[in-house]
Amino acid sequence: MGSLFDKNPELRRIYEKGLEVRKKVMGEEYVNKALSEATEFDRELQEMITIFAWGMIWTRDEVMPRKIRSLINIGILAALNRGNELKLHVKGAIRNGCTEEEIKEVLIQVGAYCGLPAAMEAFKIAKEAIREVKEEMSKEGKR
Amino acid sequence: MGSLFDKNPELRRIYEKGLEVRKKVMGEEYVNKALSEATEFDRELQEMITIFAWGMIWTRDEVMPRKIRSLINIGILAALNRGNELKLHVKGAIRNGCTEEEIKEVLIQVGAYCGLPAAMEAFKIAKEAIREVKEEMSKEGKR
Amino acid sequence: MGSLFDKNPELRRIYEKGLEVRKKVMGEEYVNKALSEATEFDRELQEMITIFAWGMIWTRDEVMPRKIRSLINIGILAALNRGNELKLHVKGAIRNGCTEEEIKEVLIQVGAYCGLPAAMEAFKIAKEAIREVKEEMSKEGKR
Amino acid sequence: MGSLFDKNPELRRIYEKGLEVRKKVMGEEYVNKALSEATEFDRELQEMITIFAWGMIWTRDEVMPRKIRSLINIGILAALNRGNELKLHVKGAIRNGCTEEEIKEVLIQVGAYCGLPAAMEAFKIAKEAIREVKEEMSKEGKR
Amino acid sequence: MGSLFDKNPELRRIYEKGLEVRKKVMGEEYVNKALSEATEFDRELQEMITIFAWGMIWTRDEVMPRKIRSLINIGILAALNRGNELKLHVKGAIRNGCTEEEIKEVLIQVGAYCGLPAAMEAFKIAKEAIREVKEEMSKEGKR
Amino acid sequence: MGSLFDKNPELRRIYEKGLEVRKKVMGEEYVNKALSEATEFDRELQEMITIFAWGMIWTRDEVMPRKIRSLINIGILAALNRGNELKLHVKGAIRNGCTEEEIKEVLIQVGAYCGLPAAMEAFKIAKEAIREVKEEMSKEGKR
User: Fold this and answer.
1) Which of A138, D88, E57, E106 has the most other CB atoms within 10 Å of its CB?
2) Cross-referenced Pfam families, in alphabetical order (chains A, B, C, D, E, F) (predicted)?
3) How far is A115 from chain C (nearest CA, A)?
């Protein structure tokens, strides 16, 4: 069972739609790397993420604009203590047009609702993410 | 040490500002009840919440509108598995002008990022909160 | 947007497959109730759960038998502190043929890895779930 | 396998020591109830708790007085979102000689480090626990 | 108080039994290192783990085979966000005879029940653990 | 909005009091670094932490001595899985006069109440923190 599409070929369309959104938000380079490094072990995970999160949820942007989804995700990931994903989604937030001020506001709110250690950790990660994504976007712009 | 103001009288102004916002978002009846039932044991907690969360964070609404803060809080509280507070903040979201559709979108996102059990629990709580807050707001309107 | 199928009609087949497994594991009565009580607010959640968890994961039973999936889920839900879902999945485990002894072993393991309070809570919930599901199954048998 | 002692009879002495401490801290009535209601399903859990937590840890009171252990446990259980156990251990704290003021201080600290929702929940639970344990202790005193 | 056995010499037998199982599952090299590096500060922790988790739980293999315990532990540790222990227990799972396919199935289930970020993190850790443990086992085989 | 004091100048006195305590507990070098590296993005976070946690809570030392607060915080941070903050607060505990034995006792209690993986992680972090803080304190003493 190497791919979800072996048994569920009808998922292909949602996957393609999701892949497009995922690349726009997470950055084409990151997504291409994640997919090209996928093995028998984690290919189906990559497909599920692309279908379920990106194809079925992040595409619902007529109801909830991606910018707001990004801010909500930053709050959620800081609460869940998932630093790696938090970093990726801070970058995604910037790509989606969130300002640094907005990201800061979410994380200050995290301080009151998740506790100060959660906020300190998240601020450190976000600071690094913002610096990195600016470089990435400036490189992308030059191509 | 019965009140924060005994030692920190300068906090009074921020407390007053916070109290006003807290009542607007959480409902006057709920806040009055929380404060009037406070004893020696939990009065300082009530003061801290009003000062820190409401006076120092929820007042920063020129940067982040309260409606967005409500949506972010719903995501955070669902992630933290704090059902009682989640219920209060779903009600607050409706008072802040969020639509049921927006709340639903946050909770669907919770499904992907916090797992399906977190979403199921949160949807159940939100459904109840929305029904109740509508009744509360209709009563308030009649007065 | 009342139903996932409005925009993604191709998901119907996986939904149907998932619905069948969900009913077998969670009990027909519970699933029918969950679906018939669904409103505009939570219908899409119910559809997502049926498609993603039941249609796409619980159907992979040639790789992982449902009995083992049930035991793993009990461990996960106890760790996540999600009591309501834990109760439903303890019932599901019994329906899937797990013995009380096996469930007990998972929860003892929870004691060592998630801490004793997690285990105490989970044992209490499981005890109740086992009593209830036996009654449910005996009623079902009589029809 | 009905009891841990079937295979590990040497644990009996630590169990007896633990049982004595457990009763002193949690209240004799509560412990007797927990043990008398234990079935084949959860007897070994009760034994493990008594041996591991009470016999091997709460007995180390020359290094760490029980009063301090109680305060630490209140912080931990509030952080873990384990309300039922929190309630029992607030009662235990009072039995161990902690004052209401000390319990309040721990929970205010919880507000800063675990977030305000964790503190609000914990204060509510503690308030109830203190009221109940005072009644229990007054009844016990009368016997 | 340098060792648990100073005050509880009767625990020695369970410790020895646990030590044997621990070495078989976690690898002799890892366990020897953990024990030889233990100081006054953490020796008793190492003893407790060996006695409680390994001597009292992992030895109950007539009720629950070690292979299943490994799979359950992978689910639990992914849910708890304990990456270091997750890595060690993925290695343990392979030593206990679990296949990569089985580990993958647990982690896909983690995606649905703990959320996609938990699954992504766990897949990354597991991939690394599997590569490393294969090398370790091949070295051990050559000796 | 570069600083909390722009809009809330009255918070200055509590900030100053908090800053003094924070430096005594966390070490002057660490606090100076945190403040000097603060940018527009995280200056307000630093101010909030100093005011709320240090100025309003850690100053309440007539009710709860700092040494006990440190021990409680170690328990809380281990429970929350916040390793970076745990490390800083183990160092703070030593600066506040806690002994290694007392820290060890808290972490053994973590083993029973948060599970063994939480304890293993926390012991590793604490061991490193204790070694480092001793060096830091010996350097400070020489100046």
Assistant:
1) E106
2) CMD (PF02627)
3) 19
Q: Where are the CATH 1.20.1290.10 domain residues in chain E?
A: 64-143
In SS3 terms, chain F reads as CCCHHHHCHHHHHHHHHHHHHHHHHHCHHHHHHHHHCCCCCCHHHHHHHHHHHHHCCCCCCCCCCHHHHHHHHHHHHHHHCCHHHHHHHHHHHHHCCCCHHHHHHHHHHHHHHHCHHHHHHHHHHHHHHHHHHHHHHHHHHHC
Q: Does residue C111 contact residue D45 with C-beta atoms inside 8 Å? A: yes
What is the rounded CA–CA span in Å between residue F43 and residue F36? 9
Give residue A120's pLDDT band: very low, low, confident or very high (50, 70, 90). very high
Averaged pLDDT, D78-106 = 98
Q: Which stretches of chain C sit within 8 Å of chain F by CB? A: 112-118
Question: What pLDDT is recorded for position D141?
Answer: 82
Q: What is the pLDDT of residues D94-116, one digit of tens each?
A: 999 999 999 999 999 999 999 99
CATH architecture of E64-143: Up-down Bundle (1.20)
Token pair in block for residue D1: 């396998």
Q: Which amino acid is at C24?
A: K
Across the interface, of B100, B107, B121, the residue whose CB is closest to C82 is: B121
This prediction has a pTM of 0.97
Residue of D108, D117, D121 lying closest to B44 (CB–CB): D108
- Across the range A123-129, mean pLDDT stands at 98
ipTM of the complex: 0.96
For residue B118, list chain E residues with Cβ-Cβ distance below 8 A.
115
